[in-house]
Design a protein that fits this description.
α8 runs parallel beside α10 (204-228), α13 (309-318) packs parallel to α14 (340-356) and α14 runs parallel beside α15. The model has no long low-confidence stretch (mean pLDDT 96). The relative contact order is 0.16. Helix content is 42%, strand content 17%. The protein has one domain: TIM Barrel, CATH 3.20.20.80. The strands form 3 sheets. An 8-stranded parallel barrel has the order 2-3-4-5-6-7-8-9, surrounded by 6 helices. It has a two-stranded antiparallel sheet with strand order 1-12. It has helices at 20-23, 30-49, 52-57, 75-88, 100-103, 112-127, 143-147, 156-171, 184-193, 204-228, 249-263, 265-268, 309-318, 340-356, 401-412, and strands spanning 4-7, 13-17, 93-97, 131-135, 177-182, 233-245, 277-287, 325-329, 361-367, 388-390, 397-399, 414-417. It is globular and about 65 Å long. A hairpin with a 6-residue loop joins β10 (388-390) and β11 (397-399). By secondary structure, the protein is an alpha/beta fold. The structure holds beta-D-glucopyranose. Beta-D-glucopyranose binds next to loops.
């Protein structure tokens, strides 16, 4: 059989994503302090948290240094080199975040030098032919903001808006796509409900306060950015999951719908406040008391269930909004790079299928450009998500074979499926 070529729409954006705290290094925010105070405890807790096979493969999880972001990938200094690599890899778009704690290290005082730094970052992207997608809050807060109570504080909305207004004013001439917040469901869930990542608050009251402040801030920032930056495209990155319940047939449907309702609540409350949909998709989540009942799936190094058709289901569910969709994250923890190529190709096959059925998908940004500090739920450095491998000691970069396969897709704007 002949190979089939799936052609993507003209002007499709191809690239990768990162976030400041995960790659830059030397950040001084509410995570930095917390990491130092909790690293030993997290290293001790690894035995309970991860499976035996994961513990054997990644003994770094028992080292407290795994939980301290420290110099991370030193991307703050090496960004030009990293963007040269992205360009070589055929990317024409890049998502990254601006670190609020650098811009406003003290309440109400902006650091002009850091603003200049991010101008250089954005210009470097533009010079390399990459469209910047700028995230304004990827879970980290300045220390002064955290001291006031973080997102539970009565000032939270006002404080965040001051930063957003400043940044959008400064960069309105060189940035078009604004991702105001990243994955509110995940960030708030781990940070304010389960307490497994900073600010490590536990309990429904703080969670609801923080969640609704973030929602309010987002909606107000939508208007604010449009007022400040002409022609801006404003949205946020939402983590879409496919929930399957395997508990007891008569209630499975209800259980999955309830899980999806809560997981997507923020998303559904922002109708009319989005110019595009930022879609992060990683895995299928099976809600079950009985592991044997779960359908057999390949898993990632983190144990996540790989389910490429899920991205198609998610995208089709977004068709009714009639908005452009950008895949703002999709990726795999795969240290030996044995599954990444297939993962990318399979997911893209289903992205293409959704496009052919009328979903207006305009770009795909893989998570991540480089291995980094995997900070959700404080996992640390061992899960390797990069198209490019990073040696965290020497800061050497090594392009993974799967990145070269992805390059072919980016450059040709098509995916070849073997017949
Ligand atoms: C987050 C990233 C993270 C990735 C992989 C998303 O939840 O936005 O910060 O590294 O998933 O876990």
């Amino acid at each position: 059989m002949e190979n089939e070529k799936l052609v993507f729409p003209k002007g499709f954006l191809w690239g990768a994503s990162t976030s400041s705290h995960q790659v830059e290094g030397y950040t001084k925010n509410n995570w930095t302090e917390w990491e130092r105070e909790n690293a030993e405890r997290l290293a001790r807790g690894a035995r309970k948290k991860w499976k035996q096979s994961q513990q054997e493969r990644f003994p770094e999880m028992f080292d407290s240094q795994n939980y301290i972001s420290g110099k991370a990938c030193d991307h703050y200094n090496l960004f030009k080199k990293d963007f040269d690599l992205a360009k070589e890899l055929g990317h024409n778009a890049h998502r990254f975040s601006i670190e609020w704690s650098r811009i406003e290290p003290e309440e109400g005082i902006f650091d002009q030098k850091e603003i200049e730094h991010y101008r250089e970052v954005i210009e470097a992207l533009r010079e390399n032919g990459m469209e910047p997608f700028v995230t304004l809050w990827h879970w980290t807060d300045p220390i002064w903001f955290a001291k006031k109570g973080g997102w539970t504080s009565a000032d939270a909305v006002k404080d965040f808006k001051r930063f957003v207004e400043k940044i959008t004013y400064e960069f309105q001439d060189i940035v078009k796509y604004w991702i105001v917040v990243n994955e509110p469901n995940v960030g708030m869930g781990f940070g304010y409900l389960l307490g497994s990542q900073p600010p490590a608050k536990k309990g429904p009251i703080s969670f609801l306060q923080a969640y609704f402040n973030l929602l309010k801030a987002y909606r107000q920032c939508y208007g604010l950015i449009h007022k400040t930056a002409q022609g801006a495209h404003v949205g946020f990155a939402h983590s879409f999951y496919l929930y399957e319940a395997e508990i007891w047939k008569p209630i499975n449907g209800i259980v999955s719908s309830v899980a999806a309702y809560f997981s997507d609540y923020f998303f559904t409350r922002t109708d009319g406040y989005r110019d595009f949909i930022g879609c992060n998709y990683y895995q299928e989540i099976t809600l079950s008391f009985n592991k044997k009942k779960q359908p057999d799936r390949e898993t990632t190094d983190l144990g996540w269930r790989i389910y490429p058709v899920g991205i198609y289901d998610v995208l089709l569910s977004l068709k009714k909004y009639g908005l452009p969709v950008y895949i703002t994250e999709n990726g795999i923890a795969d240290a030996d790079d044995s599954k990444r190529e297939k993962f990318i190709k399979e997911h893209l096959r289903f992205v293409h299928k959704a496009i052919s059925e009328g979903v207006d998908v305009r770009g795909y940004m893989h998570w991540s450009l480089i291995d980094n500090f995997e900070f959700p739920d404080m996992r640390g450095f061992w899960p390797r998500f990069g198209l490019v491998e990073v040696d965290f000691e020497t800061q050497e970069r090594k392009v993974r074979p799967s990145a070269l396969e992805y390059k072919k897709i980016c450059e040709s704007n098509e995916l070849e499926i073997e017949g």
